[in-house]
Design goal:
Layout (H helix, E strand, L loop, with lengths): L1 H26 L10 E2 L3 E2 L6 E7 L6 E4 L4 E6 L3 E6 L5 E7 L2 E7 L1
Length: 108
C-alpha cells in the first residue's frame, strides 16, 4: 500500500510541475504600450522668412493651435499639423491644446 501511494504521489507531483512550467506560456497575452502624444518638434531656431511644419504625433484627437506673440504667423493648420512662418526676431511659443492637455514648441 505504501509503495502504491508513493508512486501515485510522485506522479501527481510530476504532473503539477509540468503544468506549472507550461502555465505562463499558455496564459501569456500580448500587451502593447500606447505611444505618448507629443509634438514632432519641441524647440526650433528659425530665421526671419523660414517656414516649418509642426505635427501632433500619436493622438486620435485633433489639436487647437495657437501662438504666444506676433513673432511668428500661423500660415495654415489642420487638426494634426500647423505650418508657421517667422516674421520678426524674438522668441515665441506654439501651443497645441488636445482636450485639457497642452503641448508646447519653443521658437527662437
Amino acid at each position: 500500500m505504501k509503495k502504491q501511494s508513493k508512486k501515485l504521489l510522485s506522479c501527481i507531483l510530476v504532473l503539477c510541475i509540468i503544468l506549472l512550467a507550461l502555465m505562463p506560456t499558455c496564459t501569456q497575452t500580448l500587451v502593447t504600450a500606447k505611444a505618448k502624444t507629443k509634438l514632432s518638434i519641441k524647440s526650433i531656431t528659425m530665421t526671419v522668412g523660414d517656414t516649418k511644419t509642426i505635427k501632433l504625433l500619436n493622438s486620435k484627437k485633433g489639436a487647437v493651435w495657437s501662438r504666444e506673440n506676433s513673432n511668428i504667423n500661423i500660415i495654415s493648420e489642420t487638426k494634426k499639423k500647423v505650418k508657421i512662418k517667422a516674421v520678426e526676431e524674438g522668441k515665441s511659443i506654439v501651443y497645441a491644446l488636445v482636450g485639457k492637455k497642452e503641448y508646447k514648441c519653443k521658437i527662437t
